[in-house]
Structures are given as C-alpha cells and as structure tokens.
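Section 5.1 Outputs to date
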Amino acid sequence: MPITLQLRDKEFVLEERMTLKKAMKTLDLSAESHLAMRNGEMMQEDEILKEGDHVTIIPVISGG
C-alpha cells in the first residue's frame, strides 16, 4: 500500500518508506511552515512513514 499525504485538496502518493522530513523535502514543503498529523496525532519530522499511512499536512499561518 502506498503512503498518502494530503495538503488541502491535493493528495500526494509516495511508494517508499521514508522519514516525514524527507517526504516534506520531496514535496518541496517546509517543515517550519507545515504540521503533519497521522491518526489525529501530530508527527515529528524524524518519524518514519509506513505503507498505508495517511498523513494530513496542515499549513501554519502566522502574522502580525
């Protein structure tokens, strides 16, 4: 089973196991400006994505 990452209405499919940090880099997303949630829990960037995972990527918005 592939690994699925969802960012808003876009879905990305990865075929190999990798860390969240590598997946974010592959998708050209900054870990500093996005959060990742798997099964309702926030992920750390050193966690390994496994087959069948569905990860929701949430943009972090800040301003002043």
